[in-house]
Predict the structure.
Amino acid sequence: ADLARTECAQPAIVAVECALAELWRSWGIEPAAAIGHSIGALAAAFAAGVLSLEDAVTLAAERGRLMASLPPGEMVRVRATEEEVADVVRAFPEELAIAAVNGPAELVLSGSPRAVRAAIETLETRSLRTRSLGATRAFHSPIVGPILPALEEAVAARRLSAPRIELASDLTGRFEDPDLFLDPAYWSRHARGTVRFGDGLAALHGRGYRHFVEVGPEAARSALGKGAFPESTWIATLR
């Protein structure tokens, strides 16, 4: 039950991801590039050399603590495009957002319980499939606004280094100037903005990357990647 709590889940996920990245390295498998997904961006930053292990897990713990201080929220997976949900999101500008774009028609909405439930009702009338993610907080939505200054301060207190490998941003969905990842303000925007994982995978694919290893406690990203790019090879370390 403790792992379901935000303040426990976030550092636990990052700890597992960092450990698995190091395990692969101990077997002689060195990544040429990395991308994270939401909290996993801290583990990707560790794998790329931007953060030390201590700083990655410290920031994950602080991010989890700050997120746990927020009001309750909900998140729901939607099989739809951004255009198909745009009007639903606009109806609740302070309570609802597209939290993630994981593929061409694979979204996550995040917001207050009332906004998410209203969105589900509307989307289901359009025959769009939805599934609750069981989240207790509205990650990547306007509701996280109050914690962003404290999160930026926490990042500013850590030592960040230029990435040693290519690092795709799951905030912009592109390869960025390496200096961007050294800016504490980037990491506060990252906690609020839409996760553009699908665009990030497309950027990696565009650079010629075809072999991917998922380091984390499940195989969800592997399924997304394989679905978007059937010719790519994916290994999920844990299932």
Remarks:
- Strands lie at 33-34, 74-78, 96-103, 106-111, 130-132, 166-167, 211-214, 233-236.
